[in-house]
Amino acid sequence: MGFALIGLLLLIVSACGSSDDSSASGSEKKTNETVTYESENGAVEVPADPERVVVLGSYAGNVEALGVDVVGVDDWAKKSPVLAEKLEDAETVTEDDVEKILELKPDLIIGANTTKNLDKFKEIAPTVTYTYNKLDYLEQHVEIGKLLNKEEEAQKWVDDFKTRAEDAGEEIKAKIGEDTTVTVMENYEKGIGILGDSWGRGTEVLYQAMGFGMPDKVKDVTEQEGYKMISEEVLADYVGDYLLISQYNDQDNSYQESELFKKIPAVKEGNVLKADAYAFMFNDPLTLDYQLNFFEEEFLK
């Protein structure tokens, strides 16, 4: 009887040990688990739940909006006051900082199809690239949701945003007119950029989500490339009922003091909205929510 009891106890202890080992193995397996993501360049094995992402494109806000940590990001994203707080602990990197990115130990790298050194980055971590505007701005967010294993969360935000933006558009147009047209511009050292309906700077919110029209001339010249560079002398030809200026306050904006600018009908009537270009640059969920709030406040006040 004594030997039988000892044998039974040994079996129980052995089973418990086996159970503990199995649990540890399962935990390790989950940490290292990968899934196959179908990127625009083919299948890529990516972590099922990435935790350290480097972003070398315009998608940092998409990643942060889905609750995934960005450990490395380019300077443009860092300059956005909308994204700054969430990216406070992320290192500033460029596509040339191969060694620095290696030191960050990313488990996923996201870039643009034009990003340099992609072959080197693929040796560091699974690397996925996107072509800007190949997908529309909402499809792009859902696609990044798929990449990060958070497609459901991404789609939920998209559905909610579309409803909120449509409601806001209807409220604004009820006040300023159903057929009101809006022109979006940015000023650069070499001229003025007139922007189409999918070039960041609030264009997606205005034209696609809220349903505002753009002047026919703007539509014609931005249809192919998404934007058109013009001179200050012809700006008036492209300005609709309202003018949105995506403005860099650390650049020369003295053109706004010229008589030529002041004679534009929308300017004379006070129908000019000025937005911080760094806050308006991207079209990720965090930035889009900021832009939507901006338009509601500016158009309705």
Give me the secondary-structure topology.
Layout: H1 2-31, E1 34-39, E2 42-47, E3 53-56, H2 60-65, E4 70-73, H3 75-79, E5 91-92, H4 98-103, E6 108-112, H5 118-124, E7 127-130, H6 137-147, H7 151-176, E8 182-188, E9 191-195, H8 203-209, H9 216-222, E10 227-230, E11 242-247, H10 259-262, H11 265-268, E12 272-276, H12 277-280, H13 285-300
Parallel strand pairs: 3-4, 3-6, 4-5, 6-7, 8-11, 11-12
Antiparallel strand pairs: 1-2, 8-9, 9-10
Structural account:
Helices cover 44% and strands 19% of the residues. The chain is of the alpha/beta class. The protein folds into two domains: 34-149, Rossmann fold, CATH 3.40.50.1980; 166-300, Nitrogenase molybdenum iron protein domain (Rossmann fold, 3-Layer(aba) Sandwich), CATH 3.40.50.1980. The longest helix has 30 residues, at 2-31. The chain has helices at 2-31, 60-65, 75-79, 98-103, 118-124, 137-147, 151-176, 203-209, 216-222, 259-262, 265-268, 277-280, 285-300; strands spanning 34-39, 42-47, 53-56, 70-73, 91-92, 108-112, 127-130, 182-188, 191-195, 227-230, 242-247, 272-276. The radius of gyration is 25 Å and the shape is globular. β1 (34-39) and β2 (42-47) form a beta hairpin. The strands form three sheets. Strands 5-4-3-6-7 form a five-stranded parallel sheet. It has a five-stranded mixed sheet with strand order 10-9-8-11-12, sandwiched between helices.
